[in-house]
UniProtKB/TrEMBL annotation:
Source taxon at top rank: Bacteria
Cofactor binding: number and manner: Binds 1 [4Fe-4S] cluster.
GO BP: any one term: base-excision repair, AP site formation
Family: Belongs to the Nth/MutY family.
Protein name: Endonuclease III
Enzyme Commission (EC) number: 4.2.99.18
CDD domains with a match to the protein in the record: ENDO3c
Amino acid sequence: MTKTEKVNFVLETLDALYPEIPVPLDHKDAYTLLIAVLLSAQCTDERVNKITPILFAKADNPYDMVKMTVEEIQDIIRPCGLSPMKSKGIYGLSKILIEEHQGEVPADMEALERLPAVGHKTASVVMAQAFDIPAFPVDTHIHRLLYRWGFSNGKSVQQTEKDAKRLFPKEHWNKLHLQLVWYGRQYSPARAWKLELDIITSVIGRKTVLNEYYKKQEKKASK
């Protein structure tokens, strides 16, 4: 297969598996999505979705959020981990949204990245999922998949994002990054990976990755 054929195979397979793709983090607008994505750093989406209803019952907009103290926010979000940093970030970005953006989340990558505790990936998710502006957030699943498929060298998420944007048509980015996240979780996980269930990797996988997998399987079988 040529690289173009591999890309088309990925797009067709993912569209067949996920014709409609849900956003994994529960939210009702750009602000609640921003907070949910911030909380999801080093935390599962399932846990975030259990915590955000508690937080948003008290404050689902920046004006109500700054009425709370950092400590009050931290107490609620503690189960999500990194709560000291995340609570300061949530309070700080809410204050900036009020002071500089009339309480609205800006549909601008640079403005988002200037907010406290908001990195490039978080900003990219908000751009794609809240504003439908093409972006390609790369998480650990996407980083792993593009390496396994020989689409990127796996050296950094920044390089993986560049490679993904170069390979895949822009009109697919927003849907594709979600499809890749779900595919990575369901068919091509980091642990307990079964190549025979991994539809895409078994067809277009990087040779070194496949060879390493087969060697491990042979070792297990010989024990």
